Amino acid sequence: MLVLGIESSCDETGVALYDSEKGLLADALFSQIDLHRIYGGVVPELASRDHIKRLIPLLNQVLTESGCTKQAIDGVAYTAGPGLVGALLVGASFAKSFAFALGIPTVGVHHMEGHLLAPMLEENPPKFPFVALLVSGGHTQLVRVDGIGRYELLGESVDDAAGEAFDKTAKLLGLNYPGGPEIAKLAMQGVAKRFSFPRPMTDRPGLMFSFSGLKTAALNAWQQCKAECDETEQTKADIALAFQQAVVDTLTIKCRRALEQTGLNQLVIAGGVSANKALRQSLEAMVAPLKGHVFYARPQFCTDNGAMIAYAGCQRLLAGEHGDLAVEVKARWPMEQLPSI
Questions:
Q1: Which domain holds residue 150?
Q2: Which of 74, 171, 231, 240 is the 20 to 30 A CA-CA neighbour of 150?
Q3: Is residue 304 annotated as involved in ligand binding?
C-alpha cells in the first residue's frame, strides 16, 4: 500500500510517501521557524496561512522524488490532532479533497502516535513492548506501549512540557526561537557546577513531571547575575548548561523508574527534545546496566514531519481503518483513546 502522509499540526508542513513493502520513498518538509522567530513563538494564523502555500509544492516534490504518480497512491494519512486547530484544518481539508478526487480512503493520525512510531522508520526498530518518553514543546509523557493503539499513560507533566521550558528559558536569556537547539548549543560553552538547579519531583515517588519551577530557577539566577553586573555571554552559557543538565537528569530519573515499574528494558524517546545529544547520552548510560537499549529516530524525524504520519497512517489503513468525508480535527486528544490494531 502506498500512503501519502500530511503533517500540519503546528509550524512545519510535512509531506511524505510511504510504501508498506518498500518503506519510505520520499519526504519533504518546510519549516516556518524564520516566519515566527520575530514573534518569539508560533502565531497560529500565520502558521495556517503558510501551510496553505506549501502543501501543493511539497506534494509535487515528493511525487517527483519518488517517481510516483498521484494515481498510484492508495490512501492518505493526515494529522487530525492534537495541535493548532487552524493548522490542523488545512492539512485535513487538503487530505480529504485529494482523497475524494482519487476515490481513495483517508485516516486521521494522532500526532503523538506519529512521533512514537517514528523510530520504526529506522533500520533497527524497537519491538513491542517498550516504554516511550514523548518529549516535545507540547508534551512530556511516559507511556507503556504494548502495540499500536495499546498505550498506557504512566506519567506526564503537570505544567510546562520540557520543550516549552527550553523555549521559555531561551527567551529570557535573549536567545532565538526555537529555544531547545539554542540552549543546547550555548551549553557546550558552559562551565559545569557554577549554577545548581533543582530536579523537580524526583524527591518523591511517581512518574509525573514539572518544569515550571525549573524555568523560574533559571530566571532568578539570570536576574541576580544582571543585578550584580555579571550579564556576560559566559554566564548565559553556564545557566544554559545547568538548565539543560537539570532537565536531562529529571527525564533520566523518571525513565529509570518507568522501566523498573514495568519490568521492561527497551526505551523509545520521541519528539523534538529527543534530538538533544545530552539526553540521548544520559539515557543510553542509564539503560546499559539493565542490558537494555534506547531507540530514537534520525534527527530530521524527531521534529514534526510527514514521514511519521505516513507510516502510522499506513499501519491503520492496512488494519481497515478509514474516515468519512467529514473534516474533523481535535486540538486536544488523549492518546489512550486510540483504538488498538
A1: 127-296
A2: 74
A3: yes
